[in-house]
């Protein structure tokens, strides 16, 4: 009698899931040993990678940057498949355009770089301190009793003000506005930029001690000319037709944490039973779950019951403690401007509550940048985080256009002789909507207050946990494995973190079946 191949089901066709599938399928001898399939709830592959087009330009609705090219597996794949060059213009093809940016207060005053740079340098210095594993003696007082990144940054700003107590007001601005008020607005702008990196609604939610564990690759940060999706398609290209099943949303995962439950399956059925939205079922020996942390947070709620029986407490506690935020992009296509005038790369400094322009909607006020997606593009981009990102998802296109038009008019009122709102007219808008998409329920993870890197490690632990060698109960091993950016201790929130996690879980199964040694 020929024994059946062990069935491995990967839930999710994003970076982690397809990396795992690619590794399992291409490892010598493995594809003949395992019965492998990928089930994806949506109608496309890529997950939180979603390359699209807008206004004739290639854009990214999700993941955008390769964060450091030295050592990045994503960069290597993109380089190997010649995805780093394209004749079609693409988002951020010129880089971040930071050197060309102008910083403007909301009443239209352009701020001189000599005023902005000290605050920029302060903010960068504070972030560098927060990310150091060791700090100098004179930095220790700044770190005492600090719980969050937000509180540390504000403490640093207060210290800066104490050191510059006798500075004069900034010349050229309304006398009512103190230098400190404007510096606070500039500092808040950099905080808003940092929020987009982390997905946290507020930097007060970010755990200070965990920040130093986060790792960055050296080298420049770049975007992928042929689109991030080209990397995903390369990973999927080796898989045979039919191995990836689209439109297969898993609604429940039944598993066997102890041997006594095996009798419920009977007939030598594999230990994991998957239920799909269409009512169908599938059995598996091993399931690699790569859904987002947002979906897991919903899935462990009592009213959802994604796992039956519920996951072990160490797992649910980690899922609960870790943070998962929403980051959305809004793209605006401008009508052609007279005389070829180009929209500037704009850094926006908003006033405090008592001096606000009431025409600007509240959801614009923690948005730091509005700029062309590359030098001479007529497509603009702006980033939204947290509650503002969710609000943008709920707005219609006309409401978004109106909000941006009023903001543009306020900030560029002194920069152009003509009416800025009529000169830079928005004709079309496109937005991402990661927060309310049921397949994601957010964008990426962060280590929240009261959480730690240990929770990220707990996320990566397979179930059931290994039993004692003295135990008579021996449930089938490696029933549920977990991959995705929120399962990597040092590279969470990134595509390369998701990639590494997919390799990790594939290797775990390959070692289990003695295909490789680790």
TrEMBL record:
Gene3D superfamilies assigned to the protein according to its UniProt record, in alphabetical order: 3.90.660.10, FAD/NAD(P)-binding domain
UniProt-listed Pfam families: Amino_oxidase (PF01593)
Domain Amine oxidase: 15-510
Family membership noted in the UniProt record: Belongs to the flavin monoamine oxidase family.
The protein, known as: Amine oxidase domain-containing protein
Organism: Solanum stoloniferum
């Amino acid at each position: 009698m020929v024994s059946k191949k062990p069935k491995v089901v990967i839930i999710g066709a994003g970076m982690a899931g397809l990396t795992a599938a690619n590794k399992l399928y291409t490892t010598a001898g493995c594809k003949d040993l395992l019965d492998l399939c990928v089930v994806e709830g949506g109608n496309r592959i890529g997950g939180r990678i979603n390359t699209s087009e807008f206004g004739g330009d290639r854009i990214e609705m999700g993941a955008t940057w390769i964060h450091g090219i030295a050592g990045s597996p994503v960069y290597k794949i993109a380089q190997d498949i010649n995805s780093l060059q394209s004749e079609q213009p693409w988002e951020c093809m010129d880089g971040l355009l930071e050197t060309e940016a102008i910083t403007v207060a909301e009443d239209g005053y352009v701020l001189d770089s000599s005023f902005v740079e000290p605050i920029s340098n302060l903010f960068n210095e504070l972030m560098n301190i927060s990310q150091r594993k060791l700090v100098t003696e004179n930095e220790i007082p700044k770190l005492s009793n600090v719980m969050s990144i937000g509180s540390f940054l504000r403490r640093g700003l207060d210290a800066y003000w104490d050191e510059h107590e006798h500075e004069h007001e900034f010349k050229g601005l309304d006398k009512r506005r103190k230098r400190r008020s404007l510096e606070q607005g500039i500092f808040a702008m950099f905080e808003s930029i940092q929020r987009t990196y982390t997905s946290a609604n507020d930097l007060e939610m970010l755990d200070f001690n965990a920040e130093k564990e986060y790792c960055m690759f050296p080298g420049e940060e770049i975007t992928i000319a042929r689109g991030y999706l080209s990397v995903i398609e390369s990973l999927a290209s080796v898989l045979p037709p039919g191995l990836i099943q689209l439109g297969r949303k898993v609604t429940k995962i039944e598993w066997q944490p102890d041997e006594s439950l095996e009798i419920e399956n009977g007939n030598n059925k594999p230990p994991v039973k998957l239920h799909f939205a269409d009512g169908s079922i599938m059995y598996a020996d091993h399931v690699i779950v790569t859904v987002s942390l947002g979906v897991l947070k919903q899935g462990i709620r009592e009213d959802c019951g994604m796992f039956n029986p519920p996951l072990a407490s160490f797992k649910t506690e980690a899922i609960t403690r870790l943070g998962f935020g929403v980051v959305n992009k809004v793209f605006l296509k401008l009508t052609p401007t007279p005389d070829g005038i180009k929209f500037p790369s704009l850094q926006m400094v908003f006033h405090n509550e008592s001096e606000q322009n009431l025409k600007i909607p509240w959801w614009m006020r923690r948005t730091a940048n509005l700029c062309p997606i590359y030098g001479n593009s007529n497509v603009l981009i702006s980033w939204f985080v947290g509650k503002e990102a969710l609000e943008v998802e709920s707005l219609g296109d006309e409401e978004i256009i109106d909000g941006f038009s009023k903001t543009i008019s306020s900030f560029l009122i002194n920069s152009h002789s003509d009416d800025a709102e009529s000169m830079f007219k928005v004709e079309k808008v496109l937005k991402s909507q990661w927060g309310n998409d049921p397949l994601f329920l957010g964008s990426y993870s962060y280590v929240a207050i009261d959480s730690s890197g240990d929770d990220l490690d707990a996320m990566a632990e397979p179930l059931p946990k290994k039993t004692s060698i003295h135990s008579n109960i021996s449930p089938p091993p490696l029933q549920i494995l977990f991959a995705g950016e929120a399962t990597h201790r040092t590279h969470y929130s990134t595509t390369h973190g998701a990639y590494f996690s997919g390799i990790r879980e594939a290797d775990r199964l390959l070692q289990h079946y003695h295909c490789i040694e680790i």
